[in-house]
Amino acid sequence: MVSDAELVERAKAGDADALQELVSRHHAAVFRTVLGMLRDDDAAADATQEAFVKALRALQRFRGDSSFKTWIVAIAVNEARGWARKRGRRRETPLDAQPELAGGEQGAADRVVVADEVDRVRGALETLPEKQRMAVSLRIFEGLSFREVGKLIGSTEGAARVNYHHGIKRLRELLG
Q1: How far is the C-alpha of 47 from the C-alpha of 32, rounded, in Å?
Q2: Residue 128 DSSP label
Q3: What span, in angstroms and rounded, lies between the C-alpha atoms of 138 and 88?
Q4: Which CATH class, in words, describes the domain spanning 4-86?
Q5: Are the C-beta atoms of residues 51 and 30 closer than 8 Å to each other?
């Protein structure tokens, strides 16, 4: 498999396929991160698209000091913060919103239990301060290193570890 670094260099040279591969590889992670911040599928889709547009316009300036994934997620986090400010942190949940379930053969009772647990976890994550919520989400759901998490939340690697630790501790208390 071709590395992100090689794809970035090819994309900088004008290779549209390399650019498309970068978007394909990282779109889901960016969307999940933004969705975790905005909690609205439509707003998250728009913010994700705008983040990729901004990143692709700035691709020539990407120096490779961090991984491409860290860079694009950082742009997306900033974009999501802007969207949240624009809409005044108004949070709405569509009535027809359903959590995605792994496996399609679950019975109705199982789906209800899983949906309740997803709601409990989302609710608990909501109560965490932003840096703790981001540290936990980026570490667990995106598999980023503490160094990458630190860059994304605007802190040091050590502070990212502390935010993660306190976030997990609080989640255990809330969900225990």
Answers
A1: 11
A2: S
A3: 24
A4: mainly alpha
A5: yes
Picking from 56, 5, 6, 2, the residue whose alpha carbon sits closest to that of residue 27 is 56
What are φ and ψ of residue 102, in 5° steps? Answer: -75, 130
> How many Cβ atoms sit within 10 Å of the Cβ of residue 108?
7
- Tens-place pLDDT, residues 59-96: 999 988 889 999 999 999 989 888 888 776 444 444 34
Residue span(s) of the chain under CATH 1.10.10.10 come to: 108-175
Q: What is the pLDDT of residues 14-62, one digit of tens each?
A: 999 999 999 999 999 999 999 888 888 888 999 999 999 999 999 999 9
Tokens of residue 59, six digits: 């691709």
**Where, residue-wise, is CATH 1.10.1740.10 in the chain?**
4-86
Model pTM score? 0.65
- Alpha-carbon distance 132 to 163, whole Å? 5
The CATH architecture assigned to 108-175 reads Orthogonal Bundle (1.10)
Rg over alpha carbons for the chain, rounded to the nearest Å, is 17
